[in-house]
Please model this.
Amino acid sequence: RTALCWLRRDLRLADHAALAHAQGAGRVLAAFVFDPAQLSGLARDDARVALIWHSLLDIRQRLRALGSDLAILHGDPADEIPLLAARAGAHAVFAARDYEPAARARDARVAAALATDGRALELVKDQVVFDTGEVLTRESKPYTVFTPYARAWRAKLAPADAGSLAVRLAADAFLPWREDGAVTLATLGFTDNPIGRAEAGEAAAAQRLAAFEAKIDDYHAARDYPARDATSQLSAALRFGTVSIRTLTRTALAHDGAGAQAWLNELVWRDFYQQLLWHFPHAATESFKPAFRDLPWPGEDSHFDAWRAGQTGYPLIDAAMRELLQTGWMHNRLRMVVASFLVKDLLIDWRRGEAHFAHHLLDYDLAANNGGWQWAASTGCDAQPWFRIFNPVTQSQKFDPDGAYIRRWVPGLAALDARSVHAPWQAKALPAGFALGRDYPVPIVDHAAQRERALALYGKQP
Ligand code: FAD
Model:
């Protein structure tokens, strides 16, 4: 018997739910489908496409060494998957469950197309530790507040939940196969991207994990300081599944300390947002809280452009926004601060910021990104209260005290001392040769005034 394993955001061969289940059902042929609906609108050199591509090449090479192959296809999965299943004589197709509304609709179409030939699409849990129905309130309702969710999640966690789902990498476990290899980055209409390429594959993820393990014990104390590089930077690896969530959970459990506990808590946030998106798909496009659905956003387009480009005149904001443009990653503290700034200082709809992040983040994930934006905008279910507004200068003084992070990304401020680098317009003395307005922008808005406007805007809602 033959089973097809359809890879999506689980681009690895180790600890792999869909592969493990497929192997239980027969000899496996693995496949990946580039879906034009997902590729359209991306830049030609999108780093995520390169990350996916090189991860696939790695898998393909390893499967070819076993006499099998990775079928890399391009087209509507509702056509491609049933065709390949028929060609391979597969009786079932296995894939990891995906919680995004568009993915759910796609999977329903693929399941329907397969069913016309009497084949089943078997969706299995892989992306999260606990699935959408596994951590519920006493009334069997989904949690909408994180703290009780996390408590229930931790109480439920048994070693088996983080156990490895072993894949047998042997020739007789896979279907002898050879694809023509006609799909390439170029035929897809994309060019390579060194950032995506560097993050591709299981080995790159394993390296990041090993580097992080060496500092995990300090995570709770250092995680909020972007200059310290104290977080794992495994978000893209998790997003594309070059490492499994179970492997990371096991790592957290193996280190018994405040650092590992705090890190595990972040993995719980990740599960929390996935189940939230599944139970409340409407939040993907509108405010979770009905009261804030019709906020009139008076912000200006020119301010949105300045925010995107890292030209707001607030050094911490600009450093973070420039890091995003250059690397596709941003530290969690800064994601919160720049999101708050866009919404509550510039009074711009959080969905425009969400879309900018979606375009640039290598780790872009609808559930986490939407959850983060709705948290910062106070529109989410368990969000920052609307009257709490980050002060971008105080945040800068607190979390980048000597300005090292700012200087890394805004070289124009390199000569400013640790006092003036957070708010050059307030500095008593600036270095000779430095002119505010020429070497670095004057602030585009006044935080104190905008704070009052935001309070009035939110306060008016029912
Ligand atoms: P670590 O601190 O090492 O955390 C480990 C892992 O836990 C992360 O890799 C991530 O998978 C998960 N995680 C951590 N914090 C969160 C969180 N708050 N919510 C959900 N999962 C979390 N994360 C994304 O993966 N994709 C996004 O598109 C995304 N957009 C965000 C937008 C905003 C406005 C905010 C405030 C947060 C967003 N996050 C997003 C969450 C978080 O900022 C990143 O996961 C984190 O910065 C990634 O860095 P790391 O891997 O070093 O994290």
Remarks:
- The CA atoms of residues 26 and 312 lie 58 Å apart.
- The mean pLDDT is 97.
